[in-house]
Amino acid sequence: MSIASLQKLLEDFAEARDWGPAHTPKNLAMALAGEAGELVAEFQWLTEEESGRVMDDPERAEAVRLEMADVFCYLLRLAGVLGVDLDAAVREKTAINEHRFPAPR
Ligand SMILES: [Mg+2]
User: Fold this and answer.
1) How far is the CA of 102 from the centre of ligand 1 (A)?
2) Can you give the pTM of this predicted structure?
């Protein structure tokens, strides 16, 4: 599914529930941060080694997968509301990072 089609899916979901008025940029940015916190909480107190095996535990793997979806959904929704082309933004940022952090060879 493309970014645009995922954004349409989320927009339709929100509109069907009259959530549009609540989906202000401020609220979506805060929700995104909250969901990022929930994702981080899945790794809290794990050792580096344990964090590398997090997907081996089916219950924790599912929690991580769903929190990642929450983060991505709010990012997609925020980009949609703000009219940000995420595909273009990622390409632009990667080009900036290639300049900032040149590959050693
Ligand atoms: Mg969540």
Assistant:
1) 36
2) 0.93
pLDDT tens for each residue of 51-71: 999 999 999 999 999 999 999
Domain of residue 72, CATH code: 1.10.287.1080
Going from the Cα of 2 to the center of ligand 1, the distance in angstroms, rounded, reads 22
In the chain, the number of structural domains is 1
On whether residue 105 sits in a domain, the answer given is no
* Cα 34 to ligand 1 centre (Å): 8
- Using CA atoms, how far residue 15 sits from 9, 67, 77, in Å, is 10, 22, 12
Radius of gyration for the alpha carbons in the chain, expressed in angstroms and rounded: 17
